[in-house]
Amino acid sequence: MRDELAKEIVREKNLVYKKTGLMRDKVLSYCPGCGHGTAHRITMEVVDEMGIQEDTIGVAPVGCSVLAYEFMNIDMQQAAHGRAPALATGIKRTWPDKAIFTYQGDGDLAAIGTAETIHACNRGENFLIIFINNGIYGMTGGQMAPTTLPGMKSSTSPYGRDVLTMGNPLKITELVAELPGTHYVTRQAVHSPAAVRKAKKAIRKAFDYQMANKTGTCLVEIVSNCNSGWKMTPVQSNQWMVENMFPFYPMGDIKVDGKLLK
């Protein structure tokens, strides 16, 4: 009786959630509580639901995102640090019918790769940039990044970021939204079920724009935590993110169909 009940429960019609086959079975190497795993999953869910696995190519540079190709069951290409938009440009121009996306952290996209990001967006290259912003260099030791908040502590700003000597944080998403080459720019998060649904919807919209050959670059920023780099528990880091990161990096669409909303 118990075995029959178990079989009934796991029948397809009774499934509430099923892991997409586009996420490999390999255990994620990210720190427990990190948002990268969720961002990976919803990206692959979108590709799976759109049925474009064979036509999707991801580009992962250096940083925590460098390991994306070990977890995403699609064609992937590794790029040098900060150079993912340049590589994605070449791939998209070679195979214009493919769905191309880069998966980049803030130290990569907004620091070492600032030039590649700005120029690809200004040219209006037709691919998606997924931008994970946790305010520090996560993989290499928690150093201050261009996105580090004023007063925020890091391994290289142990007393907090002083804007007088260290400069202001760079709101790269608002910056690229001003460029004529961007078509869809939004900022989301993945710290709660509601936020995950919104982020997934944004990624789907960006892929839809690309596959419809809309002119312009799409960028989806995901503000995330780095509990190990911030020296907090996962719960504490999510709360700190909501209270400190979100006011500085507000959620929501910034540019849709080539028109600024904010």
Q: If classified by CATH, what would the architecture be? A: 3-Layer(aba) Sandwich
Low confidence ranges: none
End-to-end distance: 59 Å
Shape summary: globular
By DSSP (H or I, 4+ residues per run), the number of helices equals: 11
Radius of gyration: 19 Å
The overall average pLDDT, rounded, is 92
CATH class: Alpha Beta
Tell me the CATH topology. Rossmann fold
The CATH superfamily is known as Thiamin diphosphate (ThDP)-binding fold, Pyr/PP domains
Class per helix and strand makeup: alpha/beta
Largest sheet: 8 strands, mixed
Q: Would you report the number of β strands?
A: 10
Any idea how many domains?
A: 1
Can you tell me about this structure?
By secondary structure, this protein is an alpha/beta fold. It has a single domain (28-260), classed as Rossmann fold. The protein contains 11 helices and 10 strands. The protein has an 8-stranded mixed sheet with strand order 2-1-3-4-8-7-9-10, sandwiched between helices. The protein has a two-stranded antiparallel sheet with strand order 5-6. Helix 2 packs across helix 9 and helix 5 packs across helix 6. It is globular and about 70 Å long.
Features:
262 residues, 8-stranded mixed β-sheet, alpha/beta, globular, Rossmann fold, two-stranded antiparallel ribbon
Q: Can you give me a brief rundown of this structure?
A:
The protein has helices at 2-9, 36-50, 68-71, 84-94, 106-112, 114-123, 163-166, 172-177, 193-211, 227-230, 234-248; strands spanning 56-60, 75-78, 99-105, 128-133, 136-137, 143-144, 182-189, 217-223, 252-256, 259-260. The protein has 262 residues and is an alpha/beta fold.
